[in-house]
Amino acid sequence: MPIIQFKNVSKSFENGKDIALKDASFEIAEGEFCCIIGPSGGGKSTILKIIAGLEKETSGNVTKPENISMVFQSGALLPWLDVEKNAELGLAARHPAPGGHQTPDRGAIVRPFIDMVGLKGSERKFPRDLSGGERQRVGIARALAVNPTVLLLDEPFSALDPKTTEELHQDLIRIWQETKKTIVMVSHLIEEAVSLADRILLIKNYTIEKEFKINLPRPRRENEAAFAHEVLQVRREFFK
Q1: N or C: which end of the chain has fewer CB within 10 A?
Q2: Domain 1-66+150-240 falls in which CATH fold?
Q3: Rounded CA separation 212/200 (Å)
Q4: What DSSP state is assigned to residue 23?
Q5: Taking 70 as the threshold, does the pLDDT of residue 104 lie above it?
Q6: pTM
C-alpha cells in the first residue's frame, strides 16, 4: 500500500471560483524520495499543504499518515531562541509538559539531529549568527526531531547560493538514506529534482500531468550524459 495517496483530489477557494488543484491523482511509496515540480501557481504547494494538514481538499480522497513534519523555505526560526531551542519547537508543540511535572529533556532528543545536520557545537548560537544554509539545517533538524513518517520540504534551498545548495543536497540525501524517511519535496528547478528524487511528479494546469522515474545511481553528477538526458526529458514535458 502507498503511504500517501491522492484520488481525484481538487481544491478551490471562494465558492469554487479560485482553483488551486483539479482532479489530481498520484501515489507515493514508503521510503521514496519524490519531487513535485511545475510552473509557479500551478498547485505544487497546495499538494504539500494538503499532505501536511494545513489545507483541506474540496473533493476527492487523500490517504496519508498522521506523523508528518515540514521544512519551510526560510527555516522559519524564532530569532530570540538559540539553535537547540528552535530545534525543540516541534517537540514542544506535540509533547507539552503536563501541568506540575518536570519538562522533558527535549535537548537530549534534538542534539543528535543537530549533529546529523552538521551543526554540532552551534547549539547556543542564535539565528542572527547563522548563515542561510545553517538556518535551513536547523529547520531540518527540528522536522526530524519529531520522528516523522513523512518529511515535507517546500522549496527549501531556493534562497541559497549554489555552493550551499549543493552541500545541502548531499546532506539531505545522506539523511534520507540514514533515516529511511519518505520525503516529498517541492522544487522549481528541474536539475535539482533530477539530482535528488527517485520520482518526479509534474503538475500543470492544477493537476498531475506526468511522472518520471529517475533510475540514475547516486551520487548523481550534472556533467554526465545520463543526467543531462533525464533533465531534457523532464524539460520537454515541462515546457510543452
Answers
A1: N
A2: Rossmann fold (3.40.50)
A3: 5
A4: E
A5: no
A6: 0.90
